[in-house]
Amino acid sequence: MRRIPLIGALTGTVVALSLTACGGGDGGTAKSGAQAGALEGRGPITFVTGKDRSGYLQKQVDGWNAGHANEQVRVIELPDEPNDQRQQMIQNATTKSDAYAVLNLDVVWTAEFAANRWLVPLPKDQVGLDAMLPATVATGQYRDKLYAVPSTSDAGMLYYRKDLLDKAGVAAPPKTYAEMWAACDKVGKLPEGKGVDCFFTEVNKTESLTISAVEAIESAGGTIIGADGRPTVNTPEARKGVEFLAGAQKDGRMPKAAVTLDTEGGRRHFQSGKLLFQRQWPYQYGLAEKDDGSSKVAGKFAVAPLPGPNGPGASNLGGHNLAVSAFAKNKASALDFIKYLTGAESQKANLLATSQAPTNAALYDDPEMVKKFPYLPVLKQAIGSAKPRPVVVKYGDVTAAIQGSMYDAVQGRTPVDQALADLQGKLGPLTTQ
User: Fold this and answer.
1) Mean pLDDT, to the nearest integer, of 326-344?
2) What DSSP element (H or E) covers 319?
3) CATH H-level superfamily of 20-155+318-380
4) E strand or H helix at 120
5) Per-residue pLDDT for 36 more than 50?
6) Who is most buried in 43, 117, 194, 223, counting CB within 10 A?
């Protein structure tokens, strides 16, 4: 989603990536429900992804290319904004172009792409699903078939300035909104707290606002789409969640610029030392800890589960999955490249280099990894209980409707009750199968 841009910082020596698991002597033919011959063909392929600001992705691709002279991978980078990435991938698919082979999909795009037959079903028994977190595996499936392999996961966490909480006598990170506001008031009375904003979650009119809405509504016990696939957003619970977002903006708990700040803008605001609490993805951890002068909060912050109205809140399940385009020529090579990127060694190397959340479950309990990334236990808990964005075929239209209504509510242009009633009406036709 973050998503979310593919961002990170190289924090250690690159771990050597094993190529031995990438062979595939059977030609990559799918066994578990995939169409006969759908994963045939070997040769050069493309890997289509959002912009990689870490510089590490190309190192991974170079590792593959060094061992596959006849199956070279070329990276095609799309814009930072997820909506733009999705549109370009859809445009390629609707023209049935073979220009894109392996697609790096936001986890919420699986249903849409699979339902439109833009993806090839993948063999469940060949891609190491047993080693992955169950919540991540579910994001790659549609109607009991696997269409995408989990590559990186994501869940929102609460970043907080531990140094300021300690000075203000706040012994633990907040579990509720009330505790968070009380902590902000105490820090605000400190000389060091002057000019420090209280809280930030993304409320700009992008996919990030859909994420913030899901987390706020689910934390209050509501939902946007029910288990039957129909809209359920016009409820007291949903109202309570949206009122939290609108109230935080109206009351000055969030920066005035919150309605314009994106993921990276929020990261820079926190790293500048001007923010006490922030809802953010794991990728920020490594960047905020850099001691090269780019972060004023290195060694001064920690992470915790998101707070909610009455206790710990709900995090949104983010991340990216790798899929094979139905129109690619060399699908067997594409499948093997996916196995390579999602293997345990590749995921460990990526975690070390970028601090992005892996999908391999064992890495969250690896003592070496936990020592280097103390947030891993918190993140594992967050992923396990995270809530997805609406799983619908017309996802683009659904998220656009959510963003429009929520933005008007947060900005105070439309009363929360009216915004939710309007959104309920918009979502009805969009969720009719």
Assistant:
1) 97
2) strand 317-324
3) Periplasmic binding protein-like II (3.40.190.10)
4) none
5) no
6) 223
> CATH fold of 157-304, please?
D-Maltodextrin-Binding Protein; domain 2 (3.40.190)
Q: What are the Cα distances from residue 268, in Å, to 163, 273, 275, 294, 427? A: 18, 9, 10, 9, 35
- Domain ranges for the chain, please list them: 20-155+318-380, 157-304
Token representation of residue 87: 């549109």
Measured from the Cβ of residue 373, the count of other Cβ atoms closer than 10 Å reads 23
Q: What pTM does this model have?
A: 0.83
The model's pLDDT over 167-177, given as tens digits with 9 standing for 90+, comes to 999 999 999 99
Six token digits for residue 291: 């001691």
Residue 369 φ/ψ, nearest 5 degrees = -70, -40
Q: Cβ neighbours of residue 138 under 8 Å, at least 6 residues apart?
A: none
3-state DSSP helix/strand/coil percent for the chain, to nearest 5? 45, 15, 40
Q: Which residues contact 329 (CB under 8 A, 6 or more apart)?
A: 41, 43, 98, 101
Residue 411 CB-half CA count within 13 A: 15
Q: To 5 degrees, how large is the angle CA 100–CA 103–CA 106?
A: 145
Segment 341-365, tens digit of pLDDT = 999 999 999 999 988 899 999 999 9
Predicted confidence (pLDDT) per residue in 273-282, tens digit: 999 999 999 9
Distance CA 345, CA 133 (A): 16
Closest alpha carbon to 155 in 318, 34, 268: 318
How far apart CA 158 and CA 179 sit, in angstroms, is: 13
User: How many Cβ atoms are within 10 Å of 397's Cβ, its own excluded?
Assistant: 16
Distance CA 181, CA 126 (A): 49
The partner residues of 104 in beta bridges, in order of sequence, read 322
Task: From residue 98, give the alpha-carbon distance in Å to each of 121, 304, 385.
Answer: 17, 44, 38
